[in-house]
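Q: I'm writing a short explainer about LRC46 protein for a general audience and would like to include a description of its predicted shape. Could you first generate the structure from this sequence?
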Amino acid sequence: PFSSAGPLPTGTIRLDRENISCIGKTQGQEGIHSLYLQQNQIEKMENLECFPNLRFLCLAGNRIQRLQNLRGLPQLSLLDLSHNLIHVLHPEELPRSLRILDLAGNPCTQQEGYRAGVLAALPQLLQLDSQPVQGSAAEGEAGGGSCSSEEEEEDELLPVLGAPFTVDRGFLGDLRRELAGRARLRRTLGLEEHRARLEELRERRALLLGPGQG
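A: Of course. Here's the predicted structure. Afterward I'll give you a sentence or two in plain language.
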C-alpha cells in the first residue's frame, strides 16, 4: 500500500506501475489535485476522502470491481477507470462534477442503457470513453470553436497524462495545455529523461511508504 504521514511538496502524486495493492489512509493531503495510480494491483477504491480537492484521478489498468467512495471528491473533473473489472455500474456513485470519464474495457460498458444512464447522471460531462458528449451543459458553457491537432490527441493520451494541473485556471484550458505538453514530450523523450523519471518515482515511493517500507 501507499500512505503518507504528512503533506507532499507538490500537487501531484505519481505512482503508476509500482505494484501497489491498496490505497492507504493518509493525512494532510488537501493540496493534492492529481493522483496517478494506473497499472497497479489495486482492488478497492478506498480512502479517497483523504484527497478532498482532487481534480484528476487515474486508476486505469487495476483490478477494481466496484465503483465506490467518490462522493467525498466534489471537485473531481477527470476520472480514468478504464480496463478494470467493474461489472455493474451505479451512476449515482459518480461525482456530478465530472467532465471526462473513461470506463472503457470494463464489463459494465456492455450493460443495456449504459451510456444513457451515465449521461443522465452527469450533466457536466464532456467526454465518455474517449467519445465526445454532444450538447452537454459543460460544452455549452465552454463555447464552440475548432480543436487543434494537438487537442485531437486527447483520446490517446488521457491514460498517461503526466504534468500537474494549474489549479487556479480553468479545467479545460489546463487539460489542453497538459495534453499538448505531453505530446511534445513524447516526441522528444530521451534515455536520460527516462532515467530521471525512474529516479523520481523511486524517491516519491520512498517518501510515501516511509523508512524501512520500500
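A: For your explainer, you could say: Confidence is low (pLDDT under 50) at residues 4-9, 142-169.
Q: Perfect, that's easy to follow.
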